[in-house]
Amino acid sequence: TSSNQIIALNSVGKNTFREGAYGETTDETGNRIVPYFVDIAVDQNGMVNALEQKTGKVYQFDREGNMTTIFGGLGNKLGQFKMASSIAVDGDGAIYILDYDRNNIQVFQPTRFIRTVQDAIHHHNEGKYGQAKVLWSDVLRIDANYSLAHKGIGKALMKEKKWAEAMEEYNEAEDMKGYSAAFDEYRTDFVRTKFGLILLVIAAIVMVCWFAIKKSRKATRTLVDKYTKWQGGVRL
Q1: What sign results for the dihedral spanned by CA atoms 193, 196, 201, 205?
Q2: What is residue 11's predicted lDDT score, i.e. its pLDDT?
Q3: Is 73 exposed, middle or buried (0-12, 13-18, 19+ CB in 10 A)?
Q4: From CA 226, how far away is CA 218, in angstroms rounded?
Q5: pLDDT for 175-195, tens place per residue?
Q6: 107 with 95: CB under 8 angstroms?
Q7: I need a labelling partner for 63 at 20 to 30 A (CA). Which of 122, 165, 211, 231 fits?
Q8: Burial bucket for residue 201 (CB in 10 Å: 0-12, 13-18, 19+)
Q9: What is the mean pLDDT of residues 158-185?
Q10: What is the 3-state secondary structure (H, E, C) of the chain?
Q11: Distance separating alpha carbons of residues 60 and 150, to the nearest angstrom
Q12: How confident is the model at residue 3 (pLDDT cuts 50, 70, 90)?
């Protein structure tokens, strides 16, 4: 099966990664494949680096299983592999990949963009939501379509109780779970803060309806009285 190849258990044994498939399910020629993650390395900030052997690609995820980047591939060029078999990461975030067939190790340093992404995730995990939001904004200035940045800003806005703005960011990230959570908070906050106004509007509607019904009944009685008098031979 291609489901749940990667799991991350917290201190109580709960998987913090989303359930589902990871990696590519077709190769470069379009043939269906089942991803085979041969090795995993986790850095000091909890970033998970997973090595998939069939495509020779490295996937990096945060603690929640959100993919931050992907690189590598099969081939003979620099940055590609013939048979990647092992992965390691050092304290500075550099990633080391052992290629069994080529008998060498390639070292990959994070780019400025990825450093910023990792710093934003780290600040959020440390509870520094304002700083994380600033860094996510820097990420979006480089890549306006980077969905994880929109999701990160959405999380920060949730901490600031800015539900409507958070909904917009989650929508940009196409994160329906986050959007639903923000909407629930927005709805609850709206009802709580506008409860008095809502009651006033309801009372006004009830009063208008009551007066309308009362006026309608009075008009009906008048018509009945006129009809009765006409039937009695009295012309009005």
Answers
A1: positive
A2: 81
A3: middle
A4: 12
A5: 999 999 999 999 898 888 766
A6: yes
A7: 165
A8: exposed
A9: 95
A10: CCECCCCCECCCCCECCCCCECCCCECCCCCECCCCEEEEEECCCCCEEEEECCCCEEEEECCCCCEEEEEECECCCCCCECCEEEEEECCCCCEEEEECCCCEEEEECCCHHHHHHHHHHHHHHCCCHHHHHHHHHHHHHHCCCCHHHHHHHHHHHHHCCCHHHHHHHHHHCCCHHHHHHHHHHHHHHHHHHCHHHHHHHHHHHHHHHHHHHHHHHHHHHHHHHHHHHHHCCCCC
A11: 18
A12: low
Encode pLDDT of 74-131 as tens digits.
999 999 999 999 999 999 999 999 999 999 999 999 999 999 999 999 999 999 999 9
The pLDDT tens digits for 143-156 are 999 999 999 999 99
Q: Which two tokens stand for residue 121?
A: 């995730």
Select from 48, 54, 66 the least CA-distant residue to 24: 54
Residue 14, pLDDT above cutoff 50: yes
